[in-house]
Design goal:
30% of the residues lie in helices and 38% in strands. The protein contains 3 helices and 7 strands, in the order H-H-H-E-E-E-E-E-E-E. A 7-stranded antiparallel sheet has the order 1-2-5-4-3-6-7. It is elongated.
Amino acid sequence: MNSAKLWPWALTGVLAVTVGGNAVVYYIANNDPSMVIEPDYYEKAVQWDSTAAEADRSRELGWKAQVRMGPTDAARGADIAVTLVDAGGQPVRGAIVHLTAIHNANASQLLGAILTEGVGGEYRGHVNTRRIGLWEIRLRAEKGPARFGLTVRENNQESGRHP
């Protein structure tokens, strides 16, 4: 075969390798659980001004939250406790507290929980997970017209291990 007949085959081969490589990249990008797009990102962007205003109102409330994620037990998952106090340092009682937990290595799985009120402004809940490591905890507390939101990073350990 002479070179005049070889170049169309070479060009076809290069194009096939390029298309195949792009197909592999597409597959990996769409099937990796650690790579996700923020849910409802467009709606959140459109409502950014109201989200920023809500964050300002949350800061003006002066509430503080301390989030603790317990060790992960392979059979049970992890317990989460949130201590919620007002601007005067008094426990916030009677609030409805929701949280979303997102593990950094598996951001496609959002774990939600509604926390129940305990003693001294402490709210407790549970997330069904076997993962340890760094978590993003998105907290939302509501009491009457008051709305409080907070996002924190929390590191949990495996049950039986000490930090």
